[in-house]
Amino acid sequence: MTLPFLLFFACALVALLGAVLLIVAREPIHSALSLILVMVSLAVLYLLLGAPFVAAVQILVYAGAIMVLFVFVIMLLNAGEEERTDWSKIAKYVGWPLGVVVVLGGMHLLFHSEPGAAVANSAVNPPPPADTVALSNLLFRNYLFPFEATSILILIAILGALVLARKDE
Amino acid sequence: MLILDQLWIILALPLLGSAINGIFGLWLGSRWSNSTVNTVGVGSVGLSFLCVLEAVREFLQVPADQIPVFHDYFTWMIAGPFRAGFALQVDQLSVVMLLIVTGVGLLVHIFSVGYMAHEGGYYRFFSYLNLFVFFMLTLVLGANLLVTFVGWEGVGLCSYLLIGFWFLKKSAADAGKKAFITTRIGDMGFMVGILLVFATFNTVDYRGIFSTLAQRNVPVETHLGVITAICLLLFAGAIGKSAQLPLYVWLPDAMEGPTPVSALIHAATMVTAGVYMVARMNPLYARSPIAMLVVAIIGGVTAFYAATIGIAQTDIKKVLAYSTVSQLGYMFLACGVGAYSAGIFHLMTHAFFKGLLFLASGSVIHAMGGEQDMLKMGGLRKKIPVTFWTMLIGTIAIAGIPPFAGFFSKDQILFAAWAGPYANKPLYLLGICAAAITSFYMFRLIFLTFFGEPRYDEHHVHVHESPWSMLGPLCILALLSTVGGWFAAPTLWGGEDAFGKFLSPVFAQAAALAPVTEEASHSLELQFSAIAVAVGLIGLLVAWWLYVKNPDLPARIAKSLGGLYTLVYNKYFVDEIYGALIVTPLLWISTNVLWHVVDEGMIDGAVNGAADVAQAAGGEARKLQSGYTRSYATWVIIGAVGFSAVLYGLLRMKQ
Amino acid sequence: MSVVPVSYYLALSAFLFGLGVIAFVFKRNIITIFMAIELMLNAVNLAFVAFARAHSQLDGLVFVFFVIVVAAAEAAVGLAIVLALAHTRQSLNVDRVNLLKF
Fold first, then answer.
1. 3-state secondary structure string, A47-66?
2. Terminus-to-terminus CA distance in chain A, angstroms?
3. CA–CA distance, B632 with B568 (Å, rounded to integer)
4. Taking chain C, what is the end-to-end CA distance rounded to the nearest angstrom?
5. Is A77's Cβ below 8 Å from some Cβ in B?
6. Residue C101: inside a domain, yes or no?
7. In chain C, how many domains are there?
8. For residue A81, is pLDDT > 80?
């Protein structure tokens, strides 16, 4: 086994482990930490795929800011062990089959459908030069409009969060 | 050709009169005075009669190949290859009918001026009466079966309106309904007959049908084929409209209407529409001996049957009603044995003497202040002489005693039944017996009403003669009943049978197809005439014996006959039988099946059920909104999975 | 040096997504459900990057960028809602948020 393969399997295992822990954990803080584990392993996978910038952004923003926000809120609310209620009937009965369907469906779409299979089984090309210059070219030329739109989106999100979380006086 | 070119005028005048009287009478109420109503009502029919006279004069100058005079006014309906126009035509038969309808109609209108003078709703009466004349003229002038049918239904409507003229009286309203419904049953057959005519001939025009029959040399049908079916179905309508067995039950009840109505509609015109129809369709009937036999049998049996009921009736108008049914039977008997012109001749003479008899009875009732029961009359002949003499003339005419009108027509029919091309000797026997009975009960009526001691309280009832507006028509009709038979007098009596010759072009096809028999000898005809006269005189003598000589004898005979008398007196309980067999089950079905099961159960059930289903569905559907976020989340994912499956399927299909 | 086939990454992405769905449906704490959403987004990001590699294009990476930005905004607003809910219902159990019903 070569190094990339080993690294892939290791990270994949860790990611799956983290996901399972997220489901299994009783305390929400444990789930949060498992999710961070997943994100870090995914960052390594991005590196394997030749996208260092995205890997860095993943760690910095996703794991570093968003998850920290989650942890803040968990600690703020003192979220404890969750109580086991199962009042939603459909979730109880349809939940597991649904998950299986999603996984299998996804696999089918990816491997047995014509476009999917074409992509999945294609030869792995050399990674594109994913440096900042190339990315910025793309971002600020072809995807300028979505870029500006997302900046407005963030502004709105800030305002929304402020309004929603305010305590009534 | 002033009138012949504008035939619609003859129709339009009564219609206009009806509309004016109806609208202004309703609108203006009492300000629309009786004399105005008279002017409009009587005037419109009078003008129509004058137009008819002029039309007849013109018609006599029309060359034979242009008869029938035909006018198509507008296209009424088009459906694929079928076209029916509003078309009028005049031929010899139409001329006879026109004269009868407008002539007798005018006399009845004049009579009504006096008779209805003190009645409420005066304008309404004349409006309806004019409307009736309009529809009857449409029936007679129609050039295709559909226009005739419009008139057919229209006279039925007017009959309903007029029978139930005093609609606040329950028996009158019921009688109107009964008349309409009973004739409707026959009309159903008529309508199916018209459909069958169209299916067979692709036209409903008389000209078209008859020319098709002639050109294709359609042979006589000896089996139950299409032509027989058509004839029988059309005759079904005639059974209803002309009150034959088994649909005659409405005519006696129709006496609830005012007497002029009985005279015009139920004696002279509407009930004769069936006879007119059979006579008009003679090319068809001549090709179907089976149908002719049916017509003759029903006519003959009805003539006898109705006569037997007439013996025991005590209401003066009911006697005349059953007499009408019986005489109509004679007319159908005539058509059934191929003597079409004899049938139409009898139709004409019957219009004269039956119209006279009804109007005279109206005069009697008027004189007695509304009393109609003969058992409460008696000895009226010195007090109302004009009425007496005219009614006597009518009675002698109907009894078939020469030289009055009824003799010639009845004699022709009976002789044709015995010795004509379609002779049927049993039917002759029925006819002659019915003639005897007819003479008997008519003279019974005369003797009970006008002879003997008064059986009423002379202090309370002041018998007075009617005004001349009522007596005038009586006298004219009496004159016609006397001389009306002379221009159809057969060669036997020195006449030329001008009437028969006049009508012969109309019945040409029937005459050509009749089986050839040897010409009956004059001596045979004389013998049968003698028998007919003798029978009439016998009836007169028996009535005189029972009601003048020995007035208490009838009661003793009635008692000794017991059950038989009760049966006849109650008209063989036919109304009760119909009620039990037909009306009650129909009402039961209507209430329990159609109302409860179909209307309430099925239709309401379906409608309410739809609402209930919607409500139940909603009730179940709202449980989806459980409030649990996880349920909603699950549904979202299910939806997403489904959506992607659909998309995937579409993409696959696109490839 | 042979490279890991792209299909392996895609398979992993599918698995992670499925696990995210299961977590989303079964967990009762609102914040945990949110984190399941983030897990699903991450799985999709992985797929994007893998596709970018397969096609040798950078567009997939730009998409990942945008996904991360939107996820950040969504997390901010969502957690604000969670805070409001927690104040109102005194509980973080999503089954207790059940007033929007028939």
1. HHCCCHHHHHHHHHHHHHHH
2. 64
3. 87
4. 62
5. no
6. no
7. 1
8. no
Cα B118 off chain centre by: 28
In the prediction, which pLDDT does A119 show?
67
Give the structural domain span for C62: 6-96
* Residue B628: closest CA among A151, C33, C55, A136: C33
Q: Is the peptide bond before B246 cis (omega within 30 degrees of 0)?
A: yes
Q: Would residue C77 count as lying in a domain?
A: yes
B324 and B271 in contact (C-beta within 8 Å)? yes
B319: nearest Cα among B171, B163, B442? B442
Sign of CA dihedral B23, B27, B30, B35: negative
Give SS3 for B69: strand
Cα–Cα distance for residue pair A56/A53, rounded to 1 Å = 5
Are C16 and A15 in contact (CB < 8 Å)? yes
Coil, helix or strand for B245? Answer: coil
Rounded CA-CA distance B130/B158 in Å is 9
Q: Using CB atoms, which chains have 3+ pairs under 8 A with A?
A: B, C
- Stated as kind and residue range, the H or E segment containing B83 is strand B82-90
**For residue C52, what is the domain's CATH number?**
1.10.287.3510
Burial class, B616, CB count within 10 angstroms (exposed 0-12 / middle 13-18 / buried 19+): exposed
Q: Establish if C1 belongs to a structural domain.
A: no
A90 → closest Cβ in B634, B641, B651: B634
How does pLDDT run across B263-320, given as a tens digit for each residue? 988 777 888 899 999 999 998 898 888 999 999 999 999 999 999 998 888 899 999 9
B655 → closest Cβ in A90, A98, A114: A114
A116 to each of A98, C10, C41, how far by Cα in Å? Answer: 22, 10, 20
pTM, two decimals, is 0.73
Residue C37 falls inside a structural domain? yes
- Is residue B4 pLDDT above 80, yes or no? no
Is B626 within 8 Å of C21 when comparing Cβ atoms? no
Neighbours of B460 (CB within 10 A): 7
Q: How far is C98 from chain B (nearest CA, A)?
A: 4
> Quick check: B221 and B517 in contact, CB under 8 A?
no
DSSP letters spanning B472-495: HHHHHHHHHHHHTTGGG--GGGT-
Q: Touching check for C97 and chain B: CB below 8 Å? A: yes
d(CA B215, CA C3): 103
Taken as a whole, chain C contains a residue count of 102
d(Cα B372, Cα B526) in Å, to the nearest integer? 40
What does the pLDDT look like over B244-279, one tens digit per residue? 988 999 999 999 899 999 998 877 788 889 999 999
Q: How far apart are CA B404 and CA B391, in angstroms?
A: 13
Average pLDDT over residues B224-240: 91
**Longest CA–CA separation in chain C, Å:** 62
**pLDDT value of residue A121:** 65
Q: In this structure, what are the phi and psi dihedrals at residue B316, rounded to the nearest 5 degrees?
A: -60, -35
Cα distance between residue B334 and residue B348, in whole Å = 13
Chain A: residue whose CA lies nearest to B647 = A109
